[in-house]
Amino acid sequence: MATSENKQVNPWWVAVINGMASYIDSCTIITSGVALVIYQNTYGLTDIQFGALSAALTFCIALGSIFGGRLGDLFGRKPVFSVTMIMLVLGALIMVFSNNFIFLLIGEILMGLGVGADLPVSLATISEQAPDDKRGKMLLFSDILWVVGIVVAQGIGSLVGDWGLLGGQIMFGQLAAVSALVLILRQTIPESPVWLEQNALRRQGIVKKEDTGKLGDLVKAPYLIPFVALVIFYIGTNIPANSLGQFSTWIGNNVVELPISTVSLIGMIVYPIRAILDFVFMHFVDTPKRMPLFYMGAILYLAGFLMFPVFGASTVTYVLTQLLYCVGAAFAFEGILKVWMQECFPTLLRTTANGAIVFASRFSCAVCGFFTAAFITAFGYQVAFWVLSIMCAIGFAAAIWAFHGKRYNTFEHDEA
Asked: What is the extent of the structural domain holding 30?
């Protein structure tokens, strides 16, 4: 029965509005990467200052995810995802109007913390409002919005990238406007009914000891195996993906000797393919065909990173790397991760687990990002891609270890 505290809403409305967390996630990262180059030239930022701004965003996304996830389990989903949008609006507006390093740093920190804290609670809200037979489909829709965020940011950057300061302000202004709109629309979404129910039981002390929502429960049965597997899976697959995103343009231009415009065009073509295949996976993720498609995606994902070390650098291998990665990612990367993260943990531990998994991966990517360029310079791109391929294999092996022949559903557990 609907109440004033928990009114009924269309689950797809929840999926779209909260799924915008993924749009804002990718859009913030791409926007910052492009606009900060403009700001560096405009304001005369030193290389150290530029690096500090980029690192601040990455590390704060990681920190925000673990704190936002924990707060979401303790105090509810809605307060957290409302505050995160306020932080994003303020951070983006500071980036629009700032003219010195200190204020730019404050803006990057606010955006990073907001993006990181928003993702765990937003995904949990989608899963907890979704029908059982459409939960995976609605969570996968957020992965499509993640791709849209990349394409939009790249598209705006290609249009205004040569406009100087105004171009950077337009890019951050778009981010502020979207975040403000999402903040307004999220006020139509009530607190998660599942969280309200479980929190009430927790206050009454009538939940099982493994379901009290304590942080230490993540490293105890029955949640230890899926938690460890998802941490390894996300680190193992995300570091290669992050490295490819950071250095594919450098490799395409300096190793394969492709014009930067051609490199950008390849990216604009292959990423929409991933979004289309996400739509395909949406129809099967809630069925027994989920795992066969995951295995296929894992093989293609790994094959993409093996192109350079096995066949060397060429235009063909560069295109195949990007294409195989995008096709494989639609079935065996962040989309399925988002589904598993919701299914494997109970309501009072769900956003805590989500935040810890995202933190582990994003923090690892931030650390590795500092050494990737030096590693490629010292050992060559082929050795680097061998290492990335091995990491992919370890990540997929962890997922297969935990999920082959097994389907977790803590929603049924909570209802019982």
From this structure: 11-204
